[in-house]
Write a structure and sequence with these properties.
170 residues, globular
Length: 170
């Protein structure tokens, strides 16, 4: 199944975002999607949509992502979408990064308070994939996810995150 939608009226919210995340993760695992990790969410009041990415050899593979929407009244999965996962998922030969973590972090704003750094593969605008250091951190009162190319040190992508991030944290 690449796409599924269960439309119903969702009643009063009774579950936390974390409980919804656990239901979403259980749902994908039961359907054979192994090695998935939740990296973000959208809170719609009585429903929440969770974004999950594949993890290979400790590297987050963002092109292989899927989304699960959960009703927060009873934890039922309301929607599932895996077209990017279905289109992109494959076993990858992940190279060693040319830069070490310290070298990659030298390309990040020095005022960023870094919480966590890990390796990730992202899709570039030209359709190619790049191995990057995924840097989670805080600048002022805002949280960011920054992708630094693990070979060149180029800043490939910057995302401003919500105050509460369900993704990888230290």
């Amino acid at each position: 199944v690449v796409w599924m939608l269960n439309n119903r009226d969702v009643k009063e919210r009774k579950l936390s975002l974390k409980s919804g995340q656990q239901n979403a993760e259980k749902f994908v695992k039961q359907r054979g999607y192994d090695s998935m990790q939740t990296v973000g969410y959208d809170d719609y009041g009585n429903e929440a949509a969770y974004t999950m990415v594949y993890e290979q050899d400790g590297v987050s593979v963002y092109p292989d992502l899927l989304n699960v929407k959960v009703a927060l009244d009873n934890g039922e999965v309301m929607a599932f979408e895996s077209s990017q996962y279905a289109s992109n998922h494959k076993k990858r030969d992940i190279p060693k990064p040319k830069l070490n973590e310290k070298q990659a972090l030298s390309h990040v704003n020095p005022n960023l308070k870094v919480d966590n750094t890990s390796l990730a593969i992202i899709a570039l605008e030209n359709g190619e994939e790049a191995l990057c250091y995924e840097v989670l951190g805080t600048l002022g009162k805002s949280r960011y996810r920054i992708f630094i190319n693990a070979d060149s040190g180029d800043e490939e992508k910057v995302e401003k995150l919500k105050a509460v991030d369900l993704g990888k944290q230290s």
